[in-house]
Every structure is written in structure tokens, then in C-alpha cells.
Amino acid sequence: MCVEVSEAYQVLIDRFVIHLRDEQNLSPHSVRAYKGDLESLADHAGRSKHADPRDLTLAILRSWLARLQTQGSARSSLARRATSARMFTAWGHRRGYLDQDASELLASPKAHRTLPEVLNQAEINEVLESLDAAANETDTALAIRDRAMLETLYATGIRVSELTGLDLDSLDRSRNAIRVFGKGRKERTVPIGRPAVVAIESWESRRGELSTKESGAALFLGERGRRIDPRTVRTMVHRALQAVPSAPDVGPHGLRHTAATHLLEGGADIRVVQEILGHVSLTTTQIYTHVSIDRLREAFKQAHPRA
Question: Known catalytic residue: 75?
């Protein structure tokens, strides 16, 4: 559906986009999402004869979300759009572009939270063993790289964007840790197990086969020698999971869920897991406690004669 945005709204949205990109350091994907949400709001306001952002009210915001709901938008999508509006109006009011913060009393629709699907320890071990066998059999730089990337994703629970952002000096061998930059370019240090370190070192010994003058300091490289693209990582993970019939194809984010769940099942404190994953809110991390409880209950049903 084509949206129409007034010049006044477009100017303000463009300024907000610059704020998100340059001051908040949000990813291009996140910036595009916020921009699209606000252009949808501007289109709705214009259709309501309120093309000037200074005319924005709580009633307009509520009618915008209500219209999206009638069009079939998911609750999670509505919640995200409400967040976009709140950030926009708070920023605009703070900078003096808006006379009031119209979103201050805007409630977010509660998104239905589904528990993430994860691999059990036998399944992830089988996936890693399959990649290990492929690397030993083919002895190619790409196969060794793929094994190192999947080992790192599972060992640390980092995001794909964080993996692709790793540099050669990101690995601290003395402490078995890696330095990553998460959302908003926030830096954190994440512990990494010895098997992943060994896999990375094996890849580093072959990295020169792919490196070019465009490689720079990037740890993981694509076939043409540039810093590896997130899409390449996702394709590799899906392929590795599909190669093991017993393993669900949860994708790379599923490996993050899996790492967090296995940490909690192993007795890690939830606040430690929060730090490892880089979650701002503990509430985000708590979903993994529910995953662990569900898995425990399922194991009990299968194992106990009087379950």
C-alpha cells in the first residue's frame, strides 16, 4: 500500500532517522523499520487532516494502531509500532520540534510470547560433529571457517551481526573471551569455550587462503576475501542444521536460544546469562527459564513411571 507523507512530517522523520543512525548507533535494518513505522503514522495523520506533526495527539496515535489492527497486523508488530511512535514523540518534544509528547500515555499491545525452539545437547553435538567431519574430509578453508563460525555462535550465544563484526584482535586467548559490539554499538566481553577457540585458531591458520587487500582486520571472510556477510552465515547455519535429520532447523538465532537454555540448564545464574547475551532487560532473558522448565517437564513425563 502506497503511503503519502506530508513535507512537514518527512522533514522531521528524516531528522529522527539521522538521530537513530548517528547518535543511537542503530543498525540500518532497525532504522528502516522505525522510518517505515513513522511514515505509516504520518500517512494516517494526513488522511485525518492532520498533516502537521505538531497536531499529533494521543487520539490520532490510538486510531492509527486500531486501523492497523483491523488490517490484520500482529500484536508484536503493533507493539513495535507503538514503540516507534513513543521514541519519535519523546525525541521531538525534547528537541522542541513538537509542542507535546503525544505518546506519553500510549499503551503498547502486549505481544504474545512464544517459547523459542532450541536444540538439545545431543542434537547440537551431532551438528558440530557433522561440520567437523566435513572440515576433516574436504580440508578446505571454507569448511574450516564454517566449523569455526558455528562453534563460536553456540559457544557464546552472540548474534550473527556480532559474529560478522569480529576482528582478528577480538579474541582474548589469555582469558578465553571475545570482545563483541552489540546493539547500539555497546561493547561487552563474552566467555568462549576452548573447543571454539581451537576451531577459530584452525581457521586463522587458513585465513590467508581467502584474504585480500579488502579483508582488513575482519576475522571471518567470505569467498571473495571481504568481511563475511550475515546472509552467508545464516545460509551456512541452515545448511548445517538441515544436514542432521534429528535437529530442528532453528536458524542462527536458534543457536543463540540454544546456548542460553543450555547455560541455564547447566546451573548458570540468569543475570550472568543476561550479561553474556547483552540483554538490557532481565525480562528478555527470563523467557529461557520457561524453556528450561518446559524441557524439564517433558523429560519428567517421558522418564518417570508415574508422571
Answer: no
What does each C-alpha distance from 138 to 31, 242, 277 come to in angstroms?
A: 41, 19, 33
From 9, 34, 154, 288, the catalytic residue: 288
Split at pLDDT 50, 70, 90, the class of 307 is very low
- Kindly list the structural domains of the chain, giving each domain's residue range(s) and its CATH number in brackets, ordered by start: 7-95 (1.10.150), 121-254 (1.10.443.10)
pLDDT digits (tens, 9 = 90+) for 156-197: 999 999 999 999 999 999 889 999 988 777 889 999 999 999
Please compute the mean of the pLDDT values over residues 117-129 and round it to a whole number: 90
Judge whether 256 counts as a catalytic residue.
Answer: yes
3-state secondary structure of 181: strand
* CB-CB neighbours of 237 under 10 Å: 24
- For residues 291 and 216, the model is more confident at 216
Answer for the pair 303, 295: CB distance below 8 angstroms, yes or no: no
Q: Find the catalytic residue in 183, 188, 234, 295.
A: 183
Whether 23 contacts 43, CB under 8 Å: no
pLDDT for the residue numbered 281: 77
Q: Which one is catalytic: 35, 188, 253, 295?
A: 253
Single out the catalytic residue among 145, 159, 207, 262. Answer: 159
In the residue annotation, 159 being an active-site residue is answered as yes
Phi, psi (5° rounding) for residue 189? -110, 130
Q: Out of 75, 188, 238, 279, pick the active-site residue.
A: 279
